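name: query_chain
kind: protein
chains: 1
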Amino acid sequence: MGGIRSEQIYEALFDNEALEQLSQRLADAVGGRSSILNWRHHDGGYEALSYCYFAPDFMEAYVEAWATLDPWVIAGRQPAVVNQVVLLDELVPSSTYARSAIYNDFIRAWGDDTFHTMGVVVSTDWGDGVIGVNRGRKARAFEADELARLQRYARDVGRVLTLRGELAAARRAKDVSCATLDTMAVAVAVVAWNGRLVEANEAAETVFERADGLFCRAGVIGAVSHGDGAGLEHAIALATAASQPTAASVVVTRRAHMEPYLVTASPLVTPSTSRCAMLIFRDPETRDPSLTGRLRGLFSLSKAEAEIAIDLAEGRSPAEVAARRLVTANTLKTQLASLMGKMGCTRQSEVVSVIAALPPVRNG
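structure:
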């Protein structure tokens, strides 16, 4: 039974292949059949950072559906033992584990018999690292000498897991932030003082790809119209001024008879980023697919009433709405009276204001 050199452990900090190999090396060094190095995020989600013996689809199913129910992890997170290498068989009696859902409905269902384990839950400010070494049911339980061998490596492996976990937590936070911005129908783009694009959500990228008023060329945001481009540069300059940055807006024209983009450049200063601006605007070509359902849920409108309200909010006159819906003016008048009564409005302008106050959503 060989050991693990310190350099082999710390290579896993930045070398993905070394990280993949670390679980096998750990299992071999302490006499385990399998080993896992997982990360538990503060929101309860898990990531498998390194593992051996188990198949990828098994681990995928584990982190997605079963890790939160794992009695070994639950026991290892108890305040009395967290950050300590422990024989988890002693915290979770074999009789209890043998009756658990994870063993009967997951592990055995996959044709496996993982039954004994020792490990440690490393608690940090940004999540928990989980180190576990396992054996099958027919093997003997881990003993004190094997626990001592795991303790020999746990501090260094825990440090690697902690740093890897911090990176995973940062990546997850960015993914959540990006997904949040992508959900909104409002286009958002972050640009540096010189107009260079730093980040953009899906709504903004759609506009830039269409290039019918705004574009991104060679990584720099610009406007098709030379005059609008100068106005956009000025707005960005005001929002990224070194002293007293201020929000500014500009109208970016599009082709004839098309609604323009009304772009606001707002100062954006973070501890790691300076002199940036957030460009915020709506894409007139994008309709919120969830709006009909949300209006119906809020005001008990019929589908037809909700669609009429949206037509009004998009600037259509009652005559245009009636023609669009192939109904008479009297029928539309009756429907308008009904939907305004349900929405508590007395004028059509109030209907438009209510809809404008709802947060726009891109993915309904």
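note: Residues 184-282 form a domain with the Beta-Lactamase fold (CATH 3.30.450.20).
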